[in-house]
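hiii so um. not sure if this is the right channel but i have a protein structure encoded as tokens and i wanna go backwards to a sequence. like what aa goes where. can anyone help
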């Protein structure tokens, strides 16, 4: 998620990092399901602070968006 090169802003989206082969599925058995949950849909495309754009935190309303990925 973080670009360690000379220029900041080269990280990848949090959700993409989690679902990448070296993200949330590392050392997991085939058939394991990984899940990312966010309060607002716009947070699906967020980057770590300082690595790209990220949506402002919205008001908590008890509704959540869930994305899943099978390893």
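sure thing!! here u go:
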């Amino acid at each position: 998620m973080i670009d360690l090169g000379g220029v900041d802003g080269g990280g990848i989206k949090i959700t993409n990092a989690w679902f990448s082969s070296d993200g949330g599925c590392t050392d997991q058995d085939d058939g394991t399901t990984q899940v990312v949950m966010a309060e607002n849909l716009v947070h699906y495309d967020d980057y770590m602070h300082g690595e790209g754009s990220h949506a402002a935190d919205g008001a908590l309303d008890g509704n959540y968006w869930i994305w899943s990925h099978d390893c």
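oh and The radius of gyration is 14 Å.
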